[in-house]
Write a structure and sequence with these properties.
The structure is a single chain. By secondary structure, this protein is α/β, with parallel strands linked by helices. The chain has one domain: 3-Layer(aba) Sandwich (Rossmann fold). 42% of the residues lie in helices and 14% in strands. It is built from five helices and six strands; from the N terminus they run βαβαβαβαβαβ. A six-stranded parallel β-sheet has the order 3-2-1-4-5-6, sandwiched between helices. The longest helix is centred in the middle third of the chain and has 29 residues. It is globular.
C-alpha cells in the first residue's frame, strides 16, 4: 500500500498501549482509523488523546463475534471500506498452571485467540473488496514458553498458527495476512504502570 491517505484501518484494543500508538501513527499518515475498547469510558478517554477528526471510537468485546460484526458495520457505514485490520486486543493472566483459575484461562483464550478469529470473521468480506491487510498482534510468547505463562503461551502460540493458516486461506483473494511478535513493551498491559523501570523495554 503505497499511499495511506484516506485508507481505513480498524484496530482492536486501540485505546492504549501498542494499539493507541499505531492508531496515532496511521492518523499521522493520513488514514482514517477506528479503534475499539471494551468500555465506553476507555474509548472516550482514548479519543481525547487524538487531535484528529478522522478517528472513530467503538465499544466492542472481541470475545463476542456479534460485537465485532457490529464494529465493522459501523466502520463501513461511516467510511464505506476497511483496508487494514490490526487484531491487537489482548489480556494476560500469569500464574503457575496448578494455581491458574478456569476463569483466567478462558479469558485469555476468549480474548487473545478467539478474538482474532472473531475480528477476521467480521472483517473478511470487507477485506476481500479492498484486497486489504489483516495483521495479528502475537508475541514472542507465541514461540517461547516460560514459567507461569501456560495460558498466555497457549493463546499466543495459537495466534501464530491461526495467522499462518489464515494467510494460506486468504491470499487467493489478495488479502495480505501477517503477525507481529513483540517482546517486552512499556505499556499498561497486565496492570503495569510504565515508568523508569520500563526504560529497557
Amino acid at each position: 500500500m503505497k499511499d495511506l491517505k484516506n485508507k481505513v484501518a480498524y484496530i482492536t484494543g486501540g485505546t492504549k498501549g501498542i494499539g493507541f500508538a499505531v492508531a496515532q501513527t496511521l492518523l499521522d499518515q493520513g488514514m482514517k482509523v477506528a479503534i475499539s475498547g471494551r468500555s465506553q469510558e476507555s474509548v472516550d478517554q482514548a479519543l481525547k488523546g487524538f487531535n484528529n477528526d478522522d478517528v472513530l471510537g467503538i465499544v466492542s468485546n472481541v470475545a463476542k463475534l456479534s460485537d465485532e460484526e457490529n464494529a465493522v458495520a459501523k466502520i463501513t457505514d461511516k467510511w464505506g471500506q476497511v483496508d487494514v485490520v490490526l487484531a491487537n486486543a489482548g489480556v494476560g493472566n500469569f500464574a503457575p498452571i496448578d494455581e491458574m483459575t478456569e476463569e483466567q484461562w478462558h479469558q485469555m483464550i476468549d480474548v487473545n485467540l478467539s478474538g482474532v478469529f472473531h475480528t477476521l470473521k467480521a472483517s473478511v468480506a470487507s477485506l476481500k473488496k479492498t484486497e486489504g491487510y489483516y495483521i495479528t498482534l502475537a508475541s514472542l510468547a507465541g514461540t517461547n514458553f516460560f514459567a507461569q505463562g501456560a495460558g498466555y503461551n497457549a493463546s499466543k502460540f495459537g495466534v501464530v498458527g491461526f495467522t499462518q493458516a489464515a494467510m494460506l486461506d486468504l491470499r487467493q483473494y489478495g488479502i495480505k495476512v501477517s503477525t507481529i511478535m513483540p517482546g517486552s513493551v512499556a505499556t499498561h498491559f497486565n496492570h503495569n504502570e510504565p515508568g523508569d523501570k520500563d526504560a529497557w523495554k
